[in-house]
């Protein structure tokens, strides 16, 4: 009897039998079927191999894997992280989850607003600068939101520090008035090596009274008070919120201060709108689910090992590194939920950049290289600047043109017709038939950004659920930390000769 995965593989093979550009003629409703309008965003997945047969095969797989049951468990606060015996309650921060989780998130938000009001009211003095210290999601989430939405005249100067390389902290300190600086330390455990070392160094640099201007955001409030943080300056969040989803908790305080409370609430509101779509939409119209099917098709069936993401908007420059962590930390696994070795590829390597910069570099490989690289484009209809002229029109034209060129390519005959000799014509030949997708935002504001990030969260969950893996642990993050701690303690154990030699060379 044919398995669901075998059906997906057969459908994928059939989908690759004809060129992508011809599929619009073969299936007249293709554009309608594979475009979606949700939360002021337009998603176009039509230039991919998602034939009707492929989607139907994934729908059968979804039934076999009880995808809808897993989705219900996620959104109701049941356990979806079996290795750690936990729920994943980040949607409760936006109002969807177990009643107790939503209540706890609401209470934490009230505490966050009260602390926000105290800062605004001068309880910490005349604060003009904020140093936000965190790593992983505690760094990438706030950094992305602030960079994307920061107004021309920001309410506070926010410096975000993550790297244990003290040059990062030193650069941040160069930009602040040390007597008017607030420190926000975000660490789920409040023991994260990089974060705590940076915090201690920042406190030392800012002077004796700096600890009175220290705020802790953590799932371990007792650890924060033991460190010396005033209990009134501790913002707790749930242990069931993973670091890469922590933006929606008090970890977003620096973003709320930089942008204003109303903007932060709009961010949450946009994320909640996408939560409702993911919860309620039929799977054939559920854009996170369909996008996850596309990702699985390329990464786990066809064998594309990377996925490229290019934001044609300077404000979204930090989106590719944000997605690198979200997707690869969640789904870069080698075993399923039962501990069995996967029989197919898991998360692709996510990489990317900003258009049009990337066009003058990596797009050479996309158009003429030997690797299959599904490419995702993001653009915003409204410009993020007031300069005027043709800047934005040219930006959007380049974005759309790149997808069209990847699809169509250029034949040898077309290149030859332009007067090139054979060698040059071959050099100017592009095979085309390269898959791409496009996300077009009506505007980039707090609400649409919140919806976009929520879309990627649910897309990541759907990928893992269909593949049968646990998207909410990150055991692979810990091994290197364990070895580093052992080295710091002088325990070289069975360390290899190369590592021992390198340690000697750096004086450790």
Summed up:
The protein has helices spanning 4-15, 23-26, 30-33, 52-64, 67-76, 99-120, 137-149, 166-174, 193-206, 221-227, 253-259, 261-280, 287-302, 319-331, 363-368, 391-408, 412-417, 422-427, 446-467, 476-488, 497-505; strands at residues 35-38, 41-44, 129-133, 157-161, 181-186, 214-218, 234-236, 306-312, 349-354, 375-380, 436-441. It has 508 residues and is an alpha/beta fold.
Task: Write structural notes for this entry.
There is one protein chain. This protein has 508 residues and is an alpha/beta fold. It folds into 3 domains: 4-78 and 274-384 and 443-467, Rossmann fold; 98-259, Glucose-6-phosphate isomerase like protein, domain 1 (Rossmann fold); 476-505, no CATH class. 48% of the residues lie in helices and 11% in strands. The strands form 2 sheets. A 6-stranded mixed sheet has the order 1-2-11-10-8-9, with helices on both faces. Strands 4-3-5-6-7 form a 5-stranded parallel sheet, sandwiched between helices. Helix 9 links the parallel strand 5 (181-186) and strand 6. Helix 7 (137-149) packs antiparallel against helix 14 (319-331), helix 13 (287-302) packs across helix 19 and helix 14 (319-331) packs parallel to helix 19.
């Amino acid at each position: 009897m044919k398995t669901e995965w075998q059906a997906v593989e057969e459908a994928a093979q059939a989908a690759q039998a004809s060129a992508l550009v011809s599929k619009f003629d073969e299936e007249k409703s293709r554009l309608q079927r594979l475009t979606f309008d949700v939360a002021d965003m337009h998603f176009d997945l039509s230039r991919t191999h998602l034939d009707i047969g492929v989607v139907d095969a994934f729908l059968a797989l979804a039934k076999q894997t009880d995808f809808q049951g897993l989705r219900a468990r996620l959104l109701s606060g049941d356990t979806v992280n079996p290795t750690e015996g936990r729920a994943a309650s980040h949607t409760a921060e936006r109002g969807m989850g177990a009643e107790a989780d939503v209540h706890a998130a609401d209470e934490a938000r009230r505490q966050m607003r009260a602390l926000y009001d105290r800062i605004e009211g001068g309880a910490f003095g005349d604060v003009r600068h904020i140093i936000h210290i965190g790593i992983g999601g505690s760094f990438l989430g706030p950094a992305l939101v602030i960079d994307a939405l920061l107004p021309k005249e920001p309410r506070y100067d926010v410096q975000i520090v993550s790297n244990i390389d003290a040059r990062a902290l030193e650069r941040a300190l160069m930009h602040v008035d040390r007597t008017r600086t607030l420190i926000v330390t975000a660490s789920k455990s409040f023991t994260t090596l990089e974060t705590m070392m940076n915090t201690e160094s920042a406190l030392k640099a800012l002077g004796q009274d700096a600890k009175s201007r220290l705020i802790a955001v953590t799932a371990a409030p007792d650890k924060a008070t033991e460190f010396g943080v005033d209990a009134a300056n501790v913002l707790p969040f749930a242990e069931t919120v993973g670091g890469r989803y922590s933006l929606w908790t008090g970890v977003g305080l620096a973003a709320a201060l930089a942008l204003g409370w109303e903007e932060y609430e709009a961010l949450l509101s946009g994320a909640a709108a996408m939560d409702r779509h993911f919860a309620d939409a039929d799977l054939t119209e559920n854009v996170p689910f369909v996008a996850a099917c596309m990702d699985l098709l390329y990464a786990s069936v066809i064998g594309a090992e990377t996925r490229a993401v290019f934001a044609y908007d300077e404000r979204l420059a930090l989106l590719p590194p944000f997605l690198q962590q979200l997707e690869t930390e969640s789904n870069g696994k080698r075993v399923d939920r039962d501990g069995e070795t996967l029989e197919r590829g898991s998360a692709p390597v996510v990489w990317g950049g900003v258009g049009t910069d990337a066009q003058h570099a990596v797009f050479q490989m996309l158009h003429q290289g030997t690797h299959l690289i599904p490419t995702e484009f993001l653009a915003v209809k409204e410009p993020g600047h007031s300069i005027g002229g043709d800047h934005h029109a040219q930006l959007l034209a380049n974005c759309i043109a790149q997808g069209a060129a990847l699809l169509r390519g250029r034949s040898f005959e077309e290149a030859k017709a332009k007067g090139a000799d054979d060698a040059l014509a071959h050099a100017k030949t592009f095979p085309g038939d390269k898959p791409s997708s496009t996300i077009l935002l009506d505007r980039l504001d707090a609400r649409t950004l919140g919806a976009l990030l929520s879309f990627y969260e649910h897309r990541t969950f759907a990928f893992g659920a269909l593949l049968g893996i646990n998207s909410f642990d990150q055991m692979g993050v810990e091994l290197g930390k364990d070895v580093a701690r052992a080295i710091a303690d002088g325990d070289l154990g069975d360390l290899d000769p190369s590592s021992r030699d390198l340690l000697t060379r750096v004086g450790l």
